[in-house]
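Take a record.
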Amino acid sequence: MNSTKKLQELKTNRNIVRVVVVVGIAASIAANTLGAASWINAAIAGWPPVALLLALEILTRVPTSKRWGAAGRILATLGVAGAAGWLSYWHMAATVSQHGEHGGSEYVWPVSVDGLMTIAAIALVELGARIRQLEAAAVEATPINPAVLQAEEITRQAAQVAPISPAVAVQQMRDDPYWGARLGARRQVKKS
């Protein structure tokens, strides 16, 4: 399979996994807020899944560049995800228990939601890494156009030329036989 097709397939898979994450977050928010007595309680109970979603988005969208920064960001994300998962788990367990699940299933049910989001988070990180790897390989494999190289060289050389004032530039153009005729240099010569 060529790299362009593989890249497109990975991006499609990433979008599917993002939908799974959104469904998981929605289920988690619904389960967490269902038993809330007031909107304040619902907001408090609904925050952990939102925090998890935001942490996942940051983790998957920002590529790592330096080891210490990447390690710090991953550890912080794991901390937020762990806290959000813990809070979400117990909110969901309480809500499921309030709505008739007993005999241990109230403790298993939240795992189905949080476990799904954990799997999706790992998949997003892996897909993001593979996509960045293929995109970097595609850039490296792109043939270099000689015209682009020549244009870059001209630009580099032009940057090394000392700047001149507009008046000097106009005078240099008037002194040139081609541009001088177009800019009226001959008329100036005849007038003087």
